[in-house]
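User: Show me an example of a complex going from sequences to structure tokens.

Assistant: Sure. Here are the input components:
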Amino acid sequence: MNVRTLCLSILYEGEATGYEIRRLSVEGESSYFVEASYGSIYPALAKLEDDGLVSSRIEPQDGKPARKVYSITDAGREEFVAALHEPLAEEVFRSPFLLFARFAHLLPCELVRSRLEDQLNKTIEKKKRLIDLLEERTTSASDAWVISYGRAIMAVAEQHMRTHMHELITLARSEPAKKDAAE
Amino acid sequence: MNVRTLCLSILYEGEATGYEIRRLSVEGESSYFVEASYGSIYPALAKLEDDGLVSSRIEPQDGKPARKVYSITDAGREEFVAALHEPLAEEVFRSPFLLFARFAHLLPCELVRSRLEDQLNKTIEKKKRLIDLLEERTTSASDAWVISYGRAIMAVAEQHMRTHMHELITLARSEPAKKDAAE
DNA sequence: CCTTGCCTATATAGGACCGACATATAACGG
DNA sequence: CCGTTATATGTCGGTCCTATATAGGCAAGG
């Protein structure tokens, strides 16, 4: 899914500024399966406005820079629903951690342990964020479905890490070993 | 993790052509958490050769275009192990399917049912591919660790889909509804 | 028999997207 | 008083992907 459709999906539920769209894509309901940066959001919004799919108004604020608040138009709603009818693009899952884990036998066990612990903590935090989202009464039924799917996955990821992380540590090098000691 | 490091990780375990690197990144042991396309692999290999981290030799074939086989150098092995010591980049998970699911209430139930079934089938296939990989005797211990982590996740994803997909279908519009009927 | 499509294989052009930076100001803490 | 954080918009360089070009082999089908 492109940034264009992501912006429309957020604006479908209410008006927002580019800044807020970024924040929602990183912290909001859909933050664990979509994301976008300023470098793609602002150009996308400009293009969407050109195409008449969103409109904007300037809200001056004293001191702070003026907010440029975007709203979706009727044409925008149509475009978004049409986009949802399109065949779905493939899921993307990129994990530098798992690439690291595949080569644990080349690395000192202290480094492996440290990265595993970091990864476990991140997983726990992600699960917690999803549980918090579920408890907010603002989530709709379909949002709740998506979030509980994510929670189920984070729960097993955590479980699996806890019970198997020590196996990976025992595969790592017991000596601290220097970086340049590629065998 | 960038394409550069991905290429080094594959060449670490044996020589390969750009074409094979692409195939391994899409079908190999790490295919479910890394991926790269020709458009990034070929420039990356050229750069790696410039930097002396890989070497290449041309193998002529009758009829087919000559194979350009890349091998990792000692400097390349060092660079790769050094890269594994670097702080890990964030995991990326992009799911057009979950964005679709969040808006199930705007869509005809037949479409929702169809997409859910597609998604379930994809999940089953991914799980099966991982199980097949685990049964190959060529997988090392760390590979097995990574693959069984993936299998555990695919298993709950499948489970959750099976037991909850009908809830999402009941949220969808019972009437077929036209694309332009954005409420 | 010939066309169509798929497989191997290398490579590039154009576009999508991200990370980092530039700019501006107000609030808060040390 | 100065650094950091938060709000807010936007650009630039570089990375990476999608789609395409080229090119011959093989297999199936009309």
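The lines above are the inputs; the final block is the predicted structure for all four components together. Helices of chain B lie at 3-12, 18-27, 38-50, 74-85, 96-102, 109-135, 141-171.
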